Amino acid sequence: MPTITAETATGTITIDAQAGRKLVLELEDNGIDVLHRCGGNARCTTCGIEVISGDAGDKTEAEIAVLTAKGIDNENFRLSCQIRCENDLSVKILRQASTAGIEPGTRPEE
Ligand code: FES
Prior knowledge:
By secondary structure, this protein is an alpha+beta fold. The protein has 3 helices and 5 strands, in the order E-E-H-E-H-E-E-H. A 5-stranded mixed beta sheet has the order 2-1-5-3-4, with helices on one face. A hairpin with a 2-residue loop joins strand 1 (3-8) and strand 2. The longest helix is centred in the middle third of the chain and has 9 residues, at 61-69. The structure holds FE2/S2 (inorganic) cluster (FES). Residues 36-38, 40-47, 79, 81 line the site of FE2/S2 (inorganic) cluster.
């Protein structure tokens, strides 16, 4: 069971994640109001997180495409809707509904 450590606007949360599940869903189901404005379709980048340590796995083709299109070349910036929880990971949540003042967006599919 991968352990996810997430730095949020209101403190650090530790999650025992279900292996293979999307990171964005594990974050949301553990009380973190991470944004996911495009519904987990690798289009908006609002679900972006910073990888502090651990292996987030390879980027999906869709993730590579949107990061390239938006000119984001920070290797530690990843899309939580495209990461599967396979390994222990420490991340920083970059955009939350409560601090952005907007709705999180449509919930991504499992
Ligand atoms: S890129 Fe939009 S929710 Fe992940």
